[in-house]
Design brief:
This protein is of the alpha+beta class and 278 residues long. It has helices at residues 66-78, 84-91, 97-113, 135-148, 158-163, 174-200, 204-217, 222-235, 238-256, 262-272; strands at 9-11, 45-48, 54-57, 60-62, 82-83, 119-122, 125-128, 132-134, 152-154. Strands 4-3-2-8 form a 4-stranded mixed beta sheet. Strands 5-7-6 form a 3-stranded antiparallel beta sheet. It has a two-stranded antiparallel ribbon with strand order 1-9. The termini are far apart.
Length: 278
């Protein structure tokens, strides 16, 4: 992912990037294996998993069977070399080992017939092709940089956060559901961080858009409401701040039978003395 110019980027105070935990099934990487860790703006092949599966080469769509889609998606989401038996077992849970391995060989053959190297083999391992860019990887890398304050972060990509959809929304495999929730939480926290960052930068319209996207994603997430109320206050829109606060109070009472925390109430108390009425 490129770093934008100073005119379009904001320096974020930050901390070290959180470590990425190893997942079950890892048994080490073969010598010389590549683990994708950055975006590929120059990649010929693009694999998109957000809002549904799509594969293209130099912007030309490529159609592949569902079995091949599942292998490509699984390898891309793991983003590390994976043993063939592990991939086969995870994708065909109800099949015998021999049948699962046969299904995997068939899916890999169908992938090769597409004419692009989406998945590469190295001995017993499968890994993402050298020339493949994946939207989920780009989304994850950039969101972590945004939240960690890891250098200058291009702010125009924040707009992508507000419209990013769910991971493979029509797929219901367990490994998809787990990744979908991880990405949902990542997007939620990135949107809240974006709201705070844009508010500090004086870009109030985009800050409010990011805040609204955050509370739409998770209406009961208090930190999203705090960021949005602060954005309204910093812009000077006290009425909007109070309206947002009152909407949050109603939501908490209707859904959880709870009142707002003192921290949220304190944001608007100086305006109209809402502490006594809340």
């Amino acid at each position: 992912m490129g770093v934008d110019t100073a005119a379009n980027a904001v320096r974020l105070p930050g901390s070290a990037r959180p470590e990425v935990q190893r997942r079950n099934g890892d048994t080490g990487h073969p010598a010389g294996a590549r683990v994708v860790g950055a975006t590929r703006p120059d990649a010929r092949v693009r694999l998109c998993l957000m809002q549904g599966f799509s594969l293209s080469c130099e912007r030309v769509p490529i159609r592949i069977p569902l079995s091949a889609q599942r292998v490509a998606a699984f390898v891309a989401l793991r983003n590390r070399p994976s043993l063939r038996p592990y991939v086969a077992e995870m994708l065909w849970l109800d099949a015998t080992q021999d049948r699962a391995m046969g299904n995997l060989r068939s899916a890999l053959w169908r992938l090769r017939q597409a004419g692009v190297r989406v998945v590469e083999t190295s001995g017993d391992y499968l890994t993402l092709g050298e020339d493949v860019a994946v939207d989920v990887i780009e989304f994850t890398v950039w969101s972590h940089q945004l939240m960690a304050g890891d250098g200058d972060v291009a702010t125009e990509r924040i707009d992508e956060l507000t419209v990013a959809g769910d991971l493979l929304p029509d797929w219901y495999d367990d490994w998809v559901l787990i990744e979908r929730e991880r990405l949902r939480q990542l997007r939620l926290h990135a949107l809240e961080r974006a709201c705070v960052m844009l508010t500090l930068a004086g870009e109030f319209g985009r800050a409010i858009e990011a805040g609204l996207a955050a509370i739409t994603e998770e209406p009961l997430h208090e930190s999203g409401h705090v960021a949005l109320i602060n954005a309204h206050l910093r812009e000077g829109n006290r009425a909007e701040a109070i309206r947002q606060y009152e909407a949050y109070v109603r939501l908490m009472r209707d859904e959880l039978r709870l009142g707002p925390s003192p921290a949220v109430t304190a944001l608007v108390t100086p305006l109209v003395g809402v502490a006594s009425s809340a």
